[in-house]
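Our consortium's second objective concerns turning raw sequence data into structural hypotheses that experimental partners can test. To show how far this objective has progressed, the report includes one record in full. It was chosen at random from the queue rather than selected for favorable results. The single chain below, 744 residues long, was entered without modification.
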Amino acid sequence: MNYFRRHALLALLLLSYSPVSAAEWANWRGPERNGVSRETGLPNDVEDVLWKKNDVSCRSTPIVMNDKVYIVSRIGEGEKEQERVVCMNAKTGDLIWEHRFGIFFTPIVSVRLGWTVPFGDPETGNVYAHGTQGLLFCFDGETGKVKWQKSLTEEFGRITGYGGRVTSPIVEGELVIISMISSNWGAHGGGGVRFLAFDKNNGEMVWWSTTGIRPSNTYRCIPVVTTINNQRILISGGGDGNLHAFQVNTGKKIWSFEFGNGAMNPSPVVEGTRLYAAHGEEIPGRATVGRVACLDIGSSEPKIIWEHDGIEFKYPSPLLYQENLFLPDRQGRLYCFDAATGERLWRAKFGRNCTGSPTYGDGKIYLSSVHGYFHILDANNNGKRISRKRFQPADPKFDVEVQGSAAIANGCVYFGTTEEFYCLGKYQQVDVSLPPLPAIPSSNPTGKPTQLQVIPTEINLTAGQRVEFKAKLFDENGQFIKTTPVDLKPSAMKAGPGLGEGVTLPILKGEIEGTSFTAPKISGGQSGTLLATAGDLQASVRVRQVPSSPYFEDFESTGPGLIPGGWTNAQLRYITTKLDDGNTVLMKTARIAVPFYRQWYGFIGTPDMAGYTISADVMGEQVRDNLPNMGVTAHRYILQLVGNEQKLRVSAWDAMPRVAKETDFDWEPNTWYRLKMTVRTDKDRTNVLGKVWKKGDAEPSDWNLTLIDENPNLTGPPGIYGSALGIQPPKTGTPIYYDNISVE
């Protein structure tokens, strides 16, 4: 199909949208969300530098909104190492504001920090960003003030991404949506790829959906949104190698399509009813690695139009412009395919491996490669090199890397290296018309209500806290119909995966008045559901009430195979069990070899907790030559007995201890020890104190360890930590036991 015919057809499908101005690059793939800029007069030479920042580095892709550039970046070395969101003047590079935040509860090492991409919302001026440690922020784009934030790990059981593969948020309508691998509680207690949608204005959770397929790896795919068959849908890859589609407004899953094995990192691109996707892992049922394909998504099930396999498209996402689909592979070759037929038009060697995606503008393709190069290639002349530069490191012992994609706005090309940030070209205000954008379904739905949505759909409460729920009705296409009153009542809930087979959790306690729920003033926690009813439609609301301080848990009343109510991130990895002496304890399971299961945290409180002491009895078994690592957490610090090293250690960021103190401590398997940890805040620093003694002995008067952190974690929930070493499938690792946990 020729260009004019294809785009005439597309225009008929998208008549509801008129062209809009494109003067900014508010998300990582630009105003059309396909990597294309319609600007002209863009720079031809990498040496055409308008400004650069020597004190700002970047592994990710910048965005540009309201004459400001935003990036997620790493900052500092050693004890001062953090992530940050940086806002710079797009014309001059001057720093406008920055927000720094610490690293915790992640196995990701420092060289892989700052890979996520912020997302700007021109409607509100807000900027949304996700950190390596699971903090999701909503910033005022002008001032940098935090409007709201969520700790996805501590509140919703996010499983951190090793290897730097952490997902980025997107904004669609009134929602900010992010995906993650998580293990929460109840029906969501098993590890899986889940999509969370929050109200972009206040952070309330609107919906939560899952792929239903267990992931095999972490991933970086950023979703795309389009309209198909009068449905506004979100499409994304995941850690299971599949493509998944959901209704944007409701989270209802529409379809899944098996695309490959392992993580799916490239984001798809959509035009009309055609979706273009790439993959860099093994292809199911084939002796090949890597794939690019065009799918017809105009019906209920995707169908392949054309495909090529045996080419490793590991990280970069496809670039679609007019008739051409551009995509770099892992060997540093840029492919150009006919988007309609899949015919390979040309292939050009530009360099070595790249992780950033190509960006098109003014007949040129701007492309980075990992080993320090930035390229400008001729899109109309078989990818011929126009300009190239290799950035040299300040220290010759280290290489400069260029890992993100370029952003284009107002005559300039913006990108970062691992040492500096660059703006190429000449700044000029431009007014560029876009082609019609994908249509949004009519606001006058014709169908009857088939879906009930209650907001917030999941909430974490403390004793006495009250929440008011709102309810909405949608038709089968996910179109909003109206708000509605609902009846609320407590509902029985199955325990979920990893817990007792067929066990029903206790009914949620609390006061219901109309559409509000007030958590009871009890010392312990609880987890359960409320059932909302509107006519013949029903929806569940998940409620977790965290324990109040002072808190004591000996697990005797928890129930066999369960976890205490109000805990999160603990299900499936921790269960209660009865020892030979009749004592009921909590056990860290030691059967799952996947790295992000073997090492695990369980959280008891809320992310804003501060000024408490946590104590716990711990005991580990020896398996073959291994002893486990076991401990407690407070303020996002870890106090642990390190088994094979026979140490007592307190640290922040266990995978790469930014700050740490340790001392020798010989401890024996099958012997109970008591750990005690407190954190004291003194102005701009924290004093982290830890001690250990054999259970039954007198508590030592002095602390074994004192850690001073001048780059402190000021808040964080109490919790437990365990790393079951020595797992060699099918052999188990080192079990860990916990008892008599107190928080005061």
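The partners drew two points from this record. Residues 445 and 601 are 45 Å apart (CA to CA). The radius of gyration is 26 Å. Both points have been shared with the crystallography group to help prioritize constructs.
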